[in-house]
Amino acid sequence: MNFKIDVEMTPEELRKVLGLPDVESFQTEMMSKIQERMDAGADGYDPLTLFQPYMSTGLGSMDTLQKMLTNMMSAYTNSSKSTDKK
After folding, report:
1. How far apart are the two ends of the chain, measured CA to CA in Å?
2. How far does Cα 54 stand from its chain's mean position?
3. Which DSSP string do the residues of 48-73 spell out, in sequence order?
4. How far is CA 71 from CA 61, 75, 76, 83, in A?
5. Of 15 and 82, the one with more pLDDT
6. Which helix (H) or strand (E) holds 34?
7. DSSP 3-state assignment of 85?
8. Is the pLDDT of residue 32 over 60?
9. If you ran DSSP here, which 8-state letter would residue 81 be given?
10. For residue 67, what pLDDT band results from cuts at 50, 70 and 90?
11. What is the pTM of this model?
12. Number of neighbours of residue 15 by Cβ within 10 angstroms
């Protein structure tokens, strides 16, 4: 038995339903800081350094998630190949 449910909602409504944080104020603040540094000139402006505290754990988590998914897919592929040989 299959069920299909279509739900129309805005990204903001979806974030609220999933319990995700509202990052609009954070994003606005970060963009204003970047704009200030860009307006001040290229001297001392390094976007990677600016985002490093916020992105280091996030990128590490994404890398871990990607490795986990790759391992799951390869395990599934290997198990289906061994099942086909029987």
Report:
1. 30
2. 12
3. HHHHHHHHHHHHHHHHHHHHHHHHHH
4. 15, 6, 9, 18
5. 15
6. helix 24-40
7. helix
8. yes
9. H
10. confident
11. 0.35
12. 15
